[in-house]
């Protein structure tokens, strides 16, 4: 297998983009990534999208967007894994380059969620859970994560305020991200006094409904080293050190432990082994904080904190910018927004910016390894990637 | 890249399966493929499905079906490219094995289309066309293919009876396929007198709404040669000689030629080059005859007949079993049925049966190379695969 590098990134301003179609917002991000990579053509493209059918009445996005990019007849493939669609689309792009099938590939994600009303959006999102075993009985995602939160609070003593601190931290990070949907800070009191959605989760514990897209360009590491064009020439290279994907039971009732994310733990185990590093080597991580409790469970499953100890991480400053292991410097799903198919790709964009030293006010100093974790549903599918900064040497390219 | 072989196939009886869920029908096919391969585990699985969201209210099928197979936490990835979803899922599985990322991978497809009424099914299928440029203005797939047929008839003199002969041939083939949805033969007169859908296409020119699934198992060719288990030991090996994917404009109005399938021609060109053969070497092909006119256009784009000469192929016997190049010995989408996400994988199953010499009454004698062509929408995405029979030598394994 060939080593793979990310050579370009793009993302549009996320939010409620009523004046733009899904096609428009995807194109903004994709063209930016291609320009950032300094290439004039890609050999293939992948797009992660959770439910083009239910959100915008459009499936067959691979073909449509390859044409939209002006690059038909290149292969265009849509990949879906609920809210992990973007991360999984990126993984397929990496495999295509690693296999030698394609040399330069665009990996992207898009979701246009505000063309339907809130009820229809909630229904569309519920198709990420097990319809027959969960949704037909009336539960939706806030309820599922609320049950996970309740178990975590009961078993480990996690507090309502600790949940709120995750939102406080991520909104603070997002206030430094000019593309984030929400750029205001919140206090723990504001979170705890916000509208109740599914006890104990309140509206400020939940990631929003968002329109948005993100895209990155991957190429073989060898090709990336030879590239002189674009803005890439003066930048460090970003190598894909590991790509891993694992699954868990779809329905919560089938799991041994309601507040342990088995697929995340499994994917992380594979990824650390492939990259040859452990979690202590990571400079930062971007994780799937669709609800505040999710970030708490994820950092446990990634081995950043002990099992059961995720609750205190945000409040203690451990996971804040400047802390030992900054989590979600982009603002996370909570503040940046969560256009479900795009989220996993936007995480990768943030990792690339950090490793290039281009993250501006939210830069993690000296970042060398970064990890992204993107999951679908209540964690039934999880994709983990590890990225490594590689300096370009003076007299040539060196590791 | 490693050479890849298909080592197992499975498919359930297709039709209106009201007593089974999408989960049930997928599992039947998947377990049969795993048993046929003689393996007790796969390392990853891919599933092609066009619109789990609109047909059954269930996305996130990769994770759900990996669990359903009893093989979680293996990676489970859903791929969508409208009616080419199955072929494209197979292609991703091939790439994963070729890259060395996984050794034994299940590639599958499923669609459960009869849980919604006809209007909702027509809407769901229309999401394979360009919603903004085509469907919002009222057209659906029979209308789009009817326009293509009218141009073909006008330009090349293709007749109404020639369209009908495609249906006659494929129903005759399907009458020998015990898993086909329709197993009765039809006459050209019956086709031409059947209910008008979109002039000139009548109901017997159209593939049906179907519930069904199909699955195959792929492994590296080297691993396949070493396998002694299952029913595989005594069988010829089936090598994936080429995998190709191309796209075309989504909306018909953007194409240079309304009745030329550019993505099929492009994918075929790539596939012939990869396989090192031309169309004259093929023993049979399975093509995407969603409408009778589609088969006519596809065999032209594949180079089996001259451009504009597809109309006479079925009537002359050229493409019938026993003819020079049998097309759709399985019965095709027309008779076997068309559960959209499963179709591309079922085509591959038929190719494997033919190359193994296991196609019973519909066997093509001495088949050595077979091609499958699976397309989405009006051909905006097309996946072409070429398969080669490799005999196992007496004293070992030989090409």
Give a structural overview:
The first copy, chain A, has 399 residues and is an alpha/beta fold. Chain A has two domains: 4-117 and 209-234, Peroxisomal Thiolase, Chain A, domain 1, CATH 3.40.47; 118-207 and 242-390, 3-Layer(aba) Sandwich (Peroxisomal Thiolase, Chain A, domain 1). Chain A is built from 13 helices and eleven strands. Chain A has helices spanning 22-37, 52-56, 61-68, 85-99, 118-126, 141-156, 160-174, 188-193, 221-226, 262-275, 292-301, 332-336, 340-356; strands spanning 4-11, 44-48, 76-80, 104-112, 196-198, 201-202, 211-220, 237-247, 284-286, 369-376, 381-390. Chain A has a nine-stranded mixed sheet with strand order 3-2-4-7-1-8-11-10-9, with helices on both faces. In chain A, strands 5-6 form a two-stranded antiparallel sheet. In chain A, strand 10 (369-376) and strand 11 (381-390) form a beta hairpin. In chain A, helix 4 crosses helix 13. The two termini of chain A are 18 Å apart. At the A-B interface, helix 2, helix 3, strand 3, helix 4 and helix 5 of A face helix 2, helix 3, strand 3, helix 4 and helix 5 of B.
């Amino acid at each position: 297998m060939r080593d793979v590098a990310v050579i370009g990134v793009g993302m549009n301003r996320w939010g409620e983009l009523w004046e733009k179609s899904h096609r428009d917002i995807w194109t903004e991000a994709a063209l930016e990534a291609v320009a950032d990579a300094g290439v004039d053509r890609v050999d293939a493209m992948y797009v992660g999208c959770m439910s083009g059918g239910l959100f915008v009445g459009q499936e067959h996005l691979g073909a449509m967007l390859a044409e939209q990019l002006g690059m038909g007849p290149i292969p265009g493939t849509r990949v879906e894994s609920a809210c992990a669609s973007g991360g999984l689309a990126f993984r397929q792009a990496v495999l295509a380059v690693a296999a030698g099938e394609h040399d330069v590939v665009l990996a992207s994600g898009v979701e246009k969620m505000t063309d339907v009303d809130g009820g229809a959006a909630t229904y569309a999102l519920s198709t990420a859970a097990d319809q027959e075993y969960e949704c037909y009985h009336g539960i939706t995602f806030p309820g599922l994560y609320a049950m996970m939160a309740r178990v975590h609070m009961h078993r480990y003593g996690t507090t309502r305020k600790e949940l709120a601190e995750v939102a406080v931290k991520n909104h603070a990070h997002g206030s430094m991200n000019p593309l984030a949907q929400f750029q205001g800070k919140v206090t723990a009191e504001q979170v705890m006094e916000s509208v109740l959605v599914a006890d104990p989760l309140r509206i400020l514990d939940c990631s929003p409904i968002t329109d948005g897209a993100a895209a990155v360009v991957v190429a073989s590491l060898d090709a990336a080293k030879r590239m002189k064009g674009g803005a890439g020439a003066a930048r460090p290279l970003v190598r894909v050190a590991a790509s891993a994907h694992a699954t868990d039971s779809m329905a919560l009732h089938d799991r041994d432990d309601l507040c342990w994310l088995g697929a995340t733990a499994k994917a992380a185990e594979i990824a650390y082994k492939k990259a040859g590093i452990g979690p202590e080597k990571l400079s930062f991580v971007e994780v799937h904080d669709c609800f505040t409790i999710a970030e708490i469970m994820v950092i446990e499953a990634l081995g950043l904190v002990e099992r059961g100890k995720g609750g205190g991480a945000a409040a203690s400053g451990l996971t804040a910018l400047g802390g030992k292991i900054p989590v979600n410097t982009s603002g996370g799903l909570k503040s940046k927004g969560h256009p479900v198919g795009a989220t996993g790709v936007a995480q990768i964009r943030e990792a690339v910016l950090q490793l290039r030293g281009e993250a501006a006010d939210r830069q993690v100093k000296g970042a060398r390894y970064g990890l992204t974790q993107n999951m679908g549903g209540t964690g039934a599918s999880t994709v983990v990637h590890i990225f490594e900064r590689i300096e370009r040497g003076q007299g040539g390219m060196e590791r």
